[in-house]
Amino acid sequence: MELQPFALYATILIVTITLLKLSRRGRRRDLPPGPRPWPIIGNLNLMGSLPHRSIDALSKKYGHIMYLKFGSCPVFVGSSVAAAKFFLKTHDLSFVSRPRTAAGRYTTYNYSDITWSPYGAYWRQARKMCLTELFSARRLDSFEYIRVEELRRLLRDLFASSSSTVVLKDFLTTLSLNVISRMVLGKNYLQAEEGAVVTPEEFKTMLDELFFLNGVINVGDWIPSVRLLDLQGYVKRMKVLSRKFDRFLEHVVDEHNARRAAEGEGFVAKDMVDVLLQLADDPGLEIKLSRNGVKAFSQDMIAGGTESSAVTVEWALAELLRRPEILAKATEELDRVVGRERWVEERDMHNLPYIESIVKETMRLHPVAPMLVPRMSREDTSFEGYHLPAGSLVLVNVWTIGRDPEVWPQPDQFRPEQFVGRDIDVKGQDFELLPFGSGRRMCPGYNLGLKLIQASLANLLHGFEWRLPEGTTKEGLNMEEVFGLSTPKKEPLEVVVEPRLPAHMYVM
Question: How many CA atoms does the CB half-sphere of 179 hold within 13 Å?
């Protein structure tokens, strides 16, 4: 019997819809497990104020490879050593790009820095400049005297504050800013002086804002239809912040160019901005480094070098104040290896395995970037039978990996001993511990960060006795964090210090 036209069209429509549904189900079954997304917003409703903890809770339910949706964007989350190795090493080149976020656009001169620039010729050139010019071992060694001078200044300032309650983060941030300012900019631009472009307090606030805005989940990034509305007000804040940084960096570049012009052929690069300006003049570069590129790189180095060391040392001392027996072991090692008549030097660190273990354990429990900087997949791949399509956001939750009971016995306890004699490093090859990331997108300045963290912590422990202020107990110490591109303590650590070395050691 022949079908009437209407019945024929209806049959074709039903068959087509059925095939589409089956096709979608088939594709969905190829994806990793994950919570069912809501229309329009996807799984953004499941992200709390601490997204790494929200995702950690979800991974306990759905597994170490998980599928989410941020708005219309597919997201894959790796929360195990195997997943981290897949994303960051085995298929590193497939996941080497970055998402095009508002933070990258507005706070890094339209993706002109090393962190947010997409994969391509410009980023490859930027990475090469970092590895061979800006963060080479030779250049870092040449700046050791700066790190020593500024660390001694910190120890002297803390000595002057003995027996009184101090906010430790203020001292640590000042140390890091002074070191990075002198290495990158050639002088301490952040000293309080008449006519300064920004005050030290303003600059610290700008850095806090930069890290916060680069780590937030901005709804407009993932739901394009509401992008112009700026529902959370983040884009407005990004634009304000970018103008403040640009005013400061314009001043820096102008001063450096003026010195170059004044010295003429006798000019010698003294800092990293000088090196960047020389590279900008190099006709052999594949992609010309613009003035905005110089400013973006400078901002990247200032921010990255400051935040990682200050945050990590603060977390380390907070943990040690909760575990006096570990603090006692650390000072015993320092007295035995270094003695009480000199300060710890960078070359001492390989003889201080327990101090190194404390640093590693702090990075395990309190990684500065708990989900690293997000990546974007450039091509289709598959992992454990799951299909991972191109154009997906990729997150590696190193916070969860650092608490994996299959890797770390008693994962929620602070136990530096587990690193003593254990061949696990932080340089991107041991996927149990990835504070600086791994692969092509690993933090290029990790060696500098590690030097600052280790030397700062060792000398602080060597030079002072530490205790909590009256009325604060180790059990009551707040260990909550604030989420952003970095994850500092929610409540800054307040401490009381007493000198433990001869008085003449603090007169420098």
Answer: 35
